[in-house]
Amino acid sequence: MAPAKHRYLLMRSSSDNLYVDKSGRHDVEKTVVEVPFWETERAAWMKVFVSPMNILLIFVPLGLIAPAMEWNSAIVFGCNFVAIVPLASILGAATEAMAAHTGQMVGGLLNATFGNAVEMIMCVQAVRAGLIQVVQGNLLGSVLSNLLLVLGMAILGAGYYHSESKFNSQGAAANMTCQVVASISICLPTMFRSIQGSTDAEILLLSRICSLFLCLVYFMFLVFQLYTHSELFSDEGGEEEHHGAMSLTGSTVLLAGSTLVVAACSEGLVDSIEDVSENFGLPKAFIGVILLPIVGNAAEHATAVTSAMKGMMDLSLGVAVGSSTQIALFVVPCAVLWGWIFDSPMTLSFRNFDTACQMVTVFLVSQVLSHGNTNWLHGVMLMTTYILIAAITWFIPE
Description:
Elements: E1 6-13, E2 28-35, H1 37-49, H2 59-68, H3 73-99, H4 104-114, H5 117-128, H6 132-161, E3 165-166, H7 169-193, H8 200-228, H9 248-271, H10 273-280, H11 284-296, H12 298-309, H13 313-341, H14 352-369, E4 373-374, H15 376-395
Parallel strand pairs: 1-2
Antiparallel strand pairs: 3-4
Helix pairs in contact: 2-3, 2-9, 3-4, 3-9, 4-8, 5-6, 5-9, 5-13, 6-11, 6-12, 6-13, 6-14, 6-15, 7-8, 7-13, 7-14, 8-13, 12-13, 14-15
């Protein structure tokens, strides 16, 4: 007697021709039901915007109208500060959705360009306003925040559920080697500044040369990460969330729209920094190194910590350490090159304290990640180092 046929209903989007039968049975009679394109598109957009964090989007219109209404600088700063938090999450989702429709290399370049788009946009606005110290502080703070605060919280969170967390040490080592190269590129102009007879023009030229080579190194790192040694960066223990159901047109519109809104909010935020610093006694160094990086990386912070707590340590490292590598090798040199375009003296010559903090941070994180496993004590050490740097930054004179 022939086995009975079982009817199995498959839903397929009209925007593609793919469906997956996950039943694992061979005696299934398949019936394909076409789902309208707009239905899958609506679901993809809902997935992006239905988030508790997006309640903060109410601050976006307030932040946009505050400068035009000439509100108090503290209100302008606060509204735009909070508004950028959900916008950064939406911008990241749009980048992932658009990258899903491209090839591996193009997707990697998209993530490199827009993965830290908030930091890049804020740097452009600050360079345009001539706030070089804020730009340098924001870039340094983003690296420190990812390597010390985010990674420390992720390791500590993982330690609450697992006595020891294992990860791919080779991929982490490749990222940290890039961090060492970036630290050297900042250390050299800073040391050159102390040489007797060195001029600002020479430091600026040296910084631009180093920036061009850093961009080249980052492109080579992308080839290494995406093609020749991609197995070193695979996310073991879990799958990363994707927004690939969104169409290419939809993701492009979302990416362009969110970028424009982030640019507008960043302009209001940057333009109010001077008044907030003077009126409320907030050091510019503290704003740049501590406050601004928290805004741009809030969504990534949450992703890294929750992934680590679920046991997906490779994914958590990819978010925290990978993001800091993007900033050090790509965003920092781009900021110098933007200064070249805007005729602004943006250099790689940071303050001695900033340079020392970066070198010490890279050394400490390299030691923590060198063995391929971590425990909660490592997280405590990283977070303590970040708190010490934040405390000292508050007392650094202008």
